[in-house]
Design goal:
Strand content: 5-15%
Bound molecules: pyridoxal-5'-phosphate, (2S)-2-hydroxy-3-(4-hydroxyphenyl)propanoic acid
Helix content: 40-55%
Largest sheet: 7 strands, mixed
Length: 393
């Protein structure tokens, strides 16, 4: 039987991680996988998470099963963080998931259960896993144009033109902030225009929010999501806790669904059903830590302060890289680096130029020229800028 299996294409981002590890050069620079790193290249456990873990170790008396959809306290903490304290409780259903990836997958499954004819609209480009999960599910999807390669900014006119094709009951996947892989994001006015269009079409927005707090701040990064949630009757939000709580391997995420109040009970039951059919209970540890951090004023204040340090560090690196490139190129054509937000920027190098930088300079970025800003430090910013110019970008 198993000899009939065909090899699967590896995840390019994870494969790059392996190549980086195998490279013996000591001056190598990893700008590949989307993991936050400090100036020393470490991905630390955040202070508030460590403190919560210590408390939990003292207080936890059982590891029996929790609730199938996850604890209501976790749902409420996540909804408060994403939607604000006054979120519509009578319309919200929520599911604790295995990371943001699990939230995306469950959101796609839920959409398909509710509307077997659904088409999922996805930005071009997007996080490659969106497309590979949809393909694996044999789920129809369409791409909408998003990125203007020349200016490295959002091609909003093209995006709106493509979304004109959306049908009632279709799902439109939007990155809530810090677009992966481009770094280019909608303005709040553009979010409003998207809301108008989805409202007119009767389409359902699904927001992938994997980097809240990594762009312009916890509140600012949720602004587009909150605008959509305030305007549309039905919304899905797939939130990840991997990056903003630094708990990648704990696999913590949350799918939130806004429906009409009358549909809430069945929607909530369907979410629990999806967990049960897939793996029964989602892992508890990360979700419990997130709940503790968000509910305890002292832990929360410390977490928010550390998240701000992380965010400002990345903004500083963006400014430094843009300044270096301005000087070396004697032009402002790389100023987009300082305007992009989040961990990533698509720099606009060809696959050959990306390869040249890997071979000549031991600089690793994803093949579409997405670079992880957090992989830089004061020493490597000038090296990267030089390599970008030398590669002819
Ligand atoms: N969505 C996007 C756009 C991402 O970049 C990521 C990255 O990790 C995820 C979702 C899911 O993250 P995780 O499953 O690690 O929580
Ligand atoms: O885009 C990234 O780099 C992150 C991390 O299969 C990631 O989202 C990459 C690949 C993958 C899962 C997570």
């Amino acid at each position: 039987m198993f000899n009939s299996l065909k090899p699967q294409a590896p995840d390019k981002i994870l494969a790059l991680m392996g190549m980086f590890r195998a490279d013996p050069r000591t001056d190598k620079v990893d700008l590949g996988v989307g993991v936050y790193k400090d100036a020393e290249g470490r991905t630390p456990v955040m202070r508030a998470i460590k403190a919560a873990e210590k408390q939990l170790w003292d207080k936890e008396t059982t590891k029996t099963y929790t609730a199938l959809a996850g604890e209501p306290e976790f749902h409420a903490a996540m909804a408060g963080m994403v939607l604000g304290a006054d979120y519509p409780k009578d319309r919200l259903s929520a599911l604790q998931t295995v990371g943001g990836t699990g939230a995306c997958r469950m959101g796609f499954e839920l959409a398909r259960m509710a509307n077997p004819d659904v088409t999922i609209w996805v930005s071009d480009p997007t996080w490659p896993n969106h497309l590979s999960i949809l393909s694996f599910m044999k789920q129809d999807y369409k791409l909408y144009r998003y990125f203007d390669a020349a200016s490295r900014s959002v091609d909003f006119d093209a995006m709106m033109a493509d979304l004109e094709g959306v049908k009632a009951g279709d799902v439109v996947l939007l990155h809530g902030c810090c677009h992966n892989p481009t770094g280019a994001n909608l303005t709040i006015e553009q979010w409003g225009t998207v809301a108008d269009l989805l409202e007119a079409k009767g389409a359902i927005p699904m927001i992938d929010l994997a980097y809240q707090g990594f762009g312009d701040g916890l509140e600012a990064d949720a602004a587009g999501t909150r605008l959509i949630a305030s305007r549309l009757p039905e919304v899905m939000i797939a939130a990840s806790c991997s990056k903003n709580f630094g708990i990648y391997r704990e696999r913590t995420g949350c799918l939130m669904v806004l429906s009409d109040a009358a549909s809430k009970e069945v929607t909530q039951g369907t979410l629990a059903y999806l967990n049960r059919q897939t793996y029964s209970f989602a892992p508890d540890h990360g979700a419990r830590l997130v709940t503790m951090v968000l509910a305890d004023p002292a832990l929360r204040a410390d977490w928010e302060a550390e998240l701000e340090e992380v965010r400002n560090g990345m903004l500083g690196l963006r400014e430094a890289l843009a300044a270096e490139l301005r000087q070396l190129s004697n032009s402002d054509r790389f100023d987009f680096v300082a305007k992009h937000r989040g961990m990533f920027s698509r720099i606009g190098a060809s696959p050959e130029q990306v390869e040249k930088m890997r071979v000549d300079n031991a600089i690793y970025m994803v093949g579409d020229s997405r670079l992880n800003i957090a992989g830089l430090n004061a020493k490597t910013v000038p090296l990267l800028a030089r390599a970008i110019i030398d590669a002819g970008v």
